[in-house]
Amino acid sequence: MKLYYWIWVLVFIRCTPDDSGPGRDLTGVRYEPVPYELKLPEYLEPPTWTEEHPLTKSGVILGRALFYDSRLSSNSTKSCATCHRPKEGFSGGKGGGRMTLSLINVGYDHDNYGWDGRWPTIESAIDNMIQESTYLQGEWSEIIPLFQEDTLYPILFRKAYGISNTTQIDKEHFINAIAQFLQILIARNSKYDRVVAGNTFFSPIEQDGADMFFDANPLLPDAECAHCHIPPSFAIRSFANNGIDSVNRYSDFIDAGRGAVTHLALDTGRFKIPTLRNIAERKQFMHDGRFIQLSDVISFYNSGGHRFENYSNYLHPLHLSEYQQKAVLSFLYTLTDTTLRVNPDIAPPF
Known about the structure:
- This protein is mainly alpha-helical.
- Helix content is 33%, strand content 3%.
- The protein folds into two domains: 18-39 and 47-183, Cytochrome Bc1 Complex, Chain D, domain 2 (Orthogonal Bundle), CATH 1.10.760.10; 191-333, Cytochrome c-like domain (Cytochrome Bc1 Complex, Chain D, domain 2).
- Helix 3 (57-67) crosses helix 8, helix 5 crosses helix 8 (171-183) and helix 10 (204-214) crosses helix 13 (322-333).
């Protein structure tokens, strides 16, 4: 861990004398929770999760440390950030045949987390991602004692939750802290945001792309994007078959997607509609990562995809010219907030 980080932590927590091990008394450490202020543009409301679970500075600090800590995995080789890579729009890894969904603006989801929506709450998503073999494969019975016996973490848990002894650290504290950290992964300083705020303008090609994305100019074709990718998150809480697979029957789908959860035929091959925020930072695209260039995604949608009975009604051949496809691509690049991964509240602490 970087020395400056832990020096800062020691100052912040007003650390008691070094004394590690289970059963450690923590009452000598001050517990004075301070609200964490989300500085958002006027048009962007805070995540609804924060209404019932207010963010605190100490909770976010703890969640950030846990997000990047590989000791949550079974063999201490992977952390949340291994797959949710900051430099790739907090996505990037692949598990169980699927790409890792971006965590940017995940706080604006209300339910149905994951590509197939199998987890009803953000807490259940975090819990299962830590334990499932496809992901970190951690065991709470091993993780909790490891952190209880740590020198510094118990003090962070005390600062965040007011526990009086290391034996009170439980998995709910881990899950809540990570959830708090995820709430602050909000894209708000992309060029798109600055244009909306009236602080700059799109270039001509970006403006053409925006007009086609939102179908705002009758002189340009509708790229049919904004039906599913609605600002400010550029996503919707829904699932769709985007025609990526050529099938003749439901049993032909290699991955049943939402259908594996609901057991409804019409949900087979449907996947969560992801955010387009920071999409240009990603290295692979679609739920299975089959495309490696964002331009390939645009080309695919321009073709209209493969038709099937539960195929999205918004998909059809778009007949966009080469310039028009480049214009849409240029607009998508304006959705990148590069300040996210260098934000000191978000960047790796070690």
